[in-house]
Amino acid sequence: MSKLFIGGLAWHTEEATLRQKFEEFGPVEEAVVVKDRDTGRSRGFGFVRYTQEGDAQKAIATMNNVEFDGRTIRVDKASDNGPRGGFGRGGGYGRGFGGPAPYGMAPPGHGYQVPAPNMYAPMPYGRGYPPPQQAYGAPPQGTLRMRHGGNPQQC
């Protein structure tokens, strides 16, 4: 059994279209277009599983970097243990196609997921500068203050 990653799919590509095209190289056991679980929209990649390794190799050799359904697609072997690193390189789910991720697990990515910054964490003061000392109250003695006319005046 051999599973292929299909990247760069058009947003409108359906599973039936994907299956029909890849059946040209041999019997397809499963064809899946991965969809966003919130919107239901295609995420632009999918998987095809063949029963015969030779059929998968023919599909890779013929379909990689070829236009399909209006877009140039990438076809490669999917990993069996999750996504691989690198931009645009994908792997399989490791637990089969599709299906929601178990509770507490992040959905699978394809090498370019970046953790979201914590927007509410206090920002550290860098480069050796001390934090500001005075926020309210009277200005320290000996500082310049702007008068109403715009001319500086010694305090």
TrEMBL record:
Write out the entry's keywords from A to Z: RNA-binding
Question: Does the keyword RNA-binding belong to this entry?
Answer: yes
InterPro entries, from UniProt? Nucleotide-bd_a/b_plait_sf, RBD_domain_sf, RRM2_NsCP33-like, RRM_dom, SLIRP/GR-RBP-like
Q: What is the phylogenetic placement of the source species in the record?
A: Eukaryota, Fungi, Dikarya, Ascomycota, Pezizomycotina
Q: Which PROSITE patterns is this protein grouped with?
A: RRM
Query: Is Transmembrane included in the keywords of this UniProt record?
Result: no
According to the entry, every stretch annotated as the RRM domain falls at: 2-80
* Naturally occurring in which organism (per UniProt): Fusarium oxysporum f. sp. pisi HDV247
Give the span(s) annotated as Disordered.
Answer: 130-155
Its protein name is RRM domain-containing protein
